[in-house]
Fold this protein.
Amino acid sequence: MPSPISPEIWPARDYSRVPYRLYHDAALYEEEQKKIFRGPVWFVLGFEAEVPNVGDYRATQIGDTPVVFSRNEDGTVRAFVNRCAHRGAEVVRYPSGNAKDFTCIYHAWCYKLDGDLVGVPFRRGANGAGGMPKEFNLKDHNLTKIRVRIWKGIVFGTYAAEGEVEDLETYLGPLMCEHVGDLMRKPIKILGYQRQRVAANWKLYHENIRDAYHGSLLHEFNRTFGMSRLTQVAGGYMDDKHRHSILFQYAGSDSDEVARAAYAENGVQRGDYMTLNDYGITRHFVENKLGISTRIISVFPNIFFHQIYNTLAMRQLRTLGPGEFELVWTLFGYEDDTPELTQHRLNQANMVGPAGLISMEDGEALEMVQRSTQPDTDKAGVVEMGGIGEIRSLDTRAQEVTIRGFWAYYSQLMGLEPAGAQR
Ligand code: FES
Ligand SMILES: [Fe+2]
């Protein structure tokens, strides 16, 4: 079923109106899988540190396609679609583990760690009858391979052949190379995983991650304890294509008095009803040379990194249909962290993660949007904070221009740019 959505869907060519239909259309969702998640992009499979030994593997999902990456006998990391070449069963059934080979449980076809088919039971038949035709060649039935590149310990993959997608560093651009590179500046240690299901369209999460405006309004804890306030030195930057983004800020660059006055003037200072018995959770040990206290980074199309004070995580977005997605959080620290610092990172991760105050609130907000927009998909939301027209990086969080940037790049990839579109 082709999507009925065309470039005319956009009420404004600077993406300052976002039609609600884009969050609900099932045919559009199918096209996104093809043009984005299986398109000319580099997606992130995981960290190299998750598969340190030969045979280590992790099952994951790119868009809605199940994939696996593993450490091959030659020490390289390989990746393939987790779908048996025989009848299509998932070959790898556990989220992670160590294997000598991968054997499908349905009819026991056996694949090597790199996805090559090496065994088909009863290939010659039984008791002289049946079996595969003579022409059947194992080599024609390997698992679908994904091209892999490792960059600073991150496992990237693409379905695109060389020449169909930029090389990885060009794809990431200087902004991502600087900030993601800084988070990956030394060997990491995996601290654990969290998962969060949200009953909302996956693009609402991209909007949320790029939504500089809401950080201290929805997240009252952030504002109360000075982790994120619109009165702080902050910004929202994008690369030239607006493909990736970073929201950043410097805690401590405003004062409680200035912040309180600004929020009171705007009618959103709700009093100081929140207190903490232990302020340890809000402590920040400056680790990066820039002194940034929070960085929320979006690497198109499926990964978000955060550094919120001392908690570090990669959040992987897995689509589950037009109205649902899952986030898989990989919490990490560094190999040379002290036990105390590891504990501190984990405490702060609890505060931020799905069971804490911040991501739980985001999930709830997005589900509210999904529910209330469903009956009126011909209407559109407003994205004007920070100005309309030109899409550019700004040194403030009182803006939503980065959200318009997402839609500009999305529309380019999807072939949905309106005539005279703002890029
Ligand atoms: S579906 Fe995998 S062996 Fe038959
Ligand atoms: Fe948020």
